[in-house]
Design a protein that fits this description.
195 residues; Beta-carbonic Anhydrase, Chain A; 8 helices; 17% strand
Length: 195
Amino acid sequence: MAGNRRFVGGAPAHPNQDAARRAETAPAQNPFAVMFGCSDSRLAAEIIFDRGLGDLFVVRTAGHVVGSEVLGSVEYGASMLDCPLVVVLGHDSCGAVAAARAAADGEKPPAGFVRDVVERVTPSVLAARAAGRHEEEILHEHIRSTVDLLLERSRILAERVADGRLAVAGLSYRLADGSARLVASRGLSRDSAPV
């Protein structure tokens, strides 16, 4: 979160982005976090969190939808690379969320495999609407749902959270100002939660 504050303030430090870091990480990686976010081109994790080579193990899908490949990738980062943190990163103006809202309103869903993405986001839209939440809360509901889904579907992740070896956080990113804020956490105490 300190890196995000630097990015928002226009004073990024660009850590770990030099030849020395490239040489240091060539033999092996030791990232401190798994970053699972939306594929949106405006959501480049290393840039918006002011990180560099070897810092983040990044997994991205449209609408940060979870499938077996995502679960395997996130589990790899948490268990094989021993990352103590998994971050789910959603953002405002998400095309997948907008398409799911439109489908929930009765519009024809997109064709091809894009339809699968929309179908996986739609339960979050319906849950937020059923709870009477406003539009921004639809995104937050989807982020919280993704955090919960990772832990429901992955015994490895759930056990690591229960053992205190892993925390899973959901962050909401604002495209206009570049800020990220915490909207969900599992395994984080209030004292250690990012601000």
